[in-house]
Design goal:
By secondary structure, the chain is α/β, with parallel strands linked by helices. The protein contains 10 helices and 17 strands. The strands form 4 sheets. Strands 4, 5, 6, 8, 9, 16 and 17 form a 7-stranded mixed beta sheet that branches. Strand 10, helix 4 and strand 11 form a beta-alpha-beta unit. Helix 3 packs across helix 4 and helix 3 crosses helix 9.
């Protein structure tokens, strides 16, 4: 069975503890507080990571808003999984990873802290010249590259990406490398659409409101819909919209929209349109590692840029302020928000 997301194991202590570190805890939806935990020691097969930057992901925002189902998260809870850090200590049986190596980290939840412990499987060593701010966003690339492969893009394929947040903008860069006939993207924010155009989108559309059907805006140019629709939105209702935008015999590659869907999804319409739906997190550990390496290479070669979408940086003690900004649906300035955990 493929590895799953795990919560970093931390033991909470008083602030006066001689080996204490700061940790952000989501006490309830909308309320993040700083508490303290003991700096963990790695086991024989583990390594300890000293956090540098941790990005605020859309899945963090869903949890912060309280829209994730109880089986996914309980309160109090810990967030953060887009990690850049440095190997701080290695277990006795870890012989190749070394103290001081800079790493990206995946499948570890609860990284808004100063230190976490994980296994070598969870990290990807990056070159010394990599900017810290670029490392944390490497975490999204395995799922994005898997989505691109599932899309089966050919020279005559029309692709739609809904949503141009961090993952959507990275998705646009990657999908453009697959050379589709047309690559259309949508978002509420014109600044994000300008970046998308730079990143290879052939058509950009500003959606006037969250509840505006995409085809109301793009249908004039693409009346038959799209061969591939890749939703990069938060709420599950985006799947309803994606189905409407999908052409007959097309496919929906569900990178986003993994939150609850309160609107009815018309499975009969899916059947009539002969639409296929794919989920995108790699199903085999070896594929995850392969995509991670390929993503690293794309960034290292300058073909994927994540640094210029970083708009805000907050120290760890102001993580609550950062989430307030990131959660503001009326905000049109922020794109990627990083927490500096040092």
């Amino acid at each position: 069975m493929a590895s799953k997301m795990q919560l970093a194991d931390l033991s909470f202590v008083e602030a006066s503890h001689p080996n204490a570190q700061r940790v952000a805890v989501l006490q309830k939806p909308g309320q993040i507080e700083m508490v303290y935990a003991e700096i963990p020691e790695p086991g024989p097969e583990e390594i300890r990571i000293r956090m540098h930057y941790v990005g605020i992901c859309g899945s963090d925002i869903e949890t912060y808003r309280g829209i994730r189902r109880p089986e996914f998260v309980s309160f109090p809870g810990r967030l953060g999984h887009e990690v850049s850090g440095v190997v701080d200590k290695v277990g006795a049986n870890v012989h190749t990873l070394k103290v001081g190596q800079r790493v990206s980290c995946r499948y570890v939840w609860g990284a808004f802290a100063e230190y976490i412990v994980c296994t070598p499987f969870n990290v990807k060593v990056v070159p010394d010249n990599f900017p810290d701010e670029e490392i944390s966003s490497l975490e999204v690339l395995p799922g994005i590259l898997h989505a691109a492969e599932l899309s089966n893009i050919q020279a005559n394929t029309n692709v739609l990406i809904t949503g141009q947040g961090v993952s959507g903008l990275v998705m646009t860069q990657v999908i453009s490398l697959f050379s589709p006939k047309h690559l259309a993207v949508t978002d509420l924010n014109p600044a994000k659409l300008e970046l998308a155009k730079k990143y290879g989108a052939t058509h950009t559309y500003q959606i006037p409101s969250e509840d505006t059907p995409t085809m109301d805006i793009v249908g004039k140019d693409f009346p038959d819909g799209f061969d591939v629709v890749i939703p990069c939105l938060l709420e599950g209702a985006g799947m309803v919209d994606a189905l409407d935008a999908c052409a007959f015999g097309g496919r929906i590659v569900m990178y986003g929209c993994i939150g609850p869907c309160e609107e009815p999804f018309d499975f009969f319409k899916m059947h009539k349109k002969r639409v296929d739906i794919y989920s995108t997190e790699p199903k085999r550990d070896i594929d995850m590692r392969r995509f991670w390496q390929e993503g690293l290479q794309l960034v290292e070669d300058g073909l994927v840029n994540t640094v210029e979408m970083v708009t805000h940086r907050f120290p760890l003690e102001k993580v609550g302020e950062a989430f307030t900004l990131r959660d503001d649906k009326s905000d049109r300035e922020s794109i990627h928000v990083l927490i500096d955990c040092r």
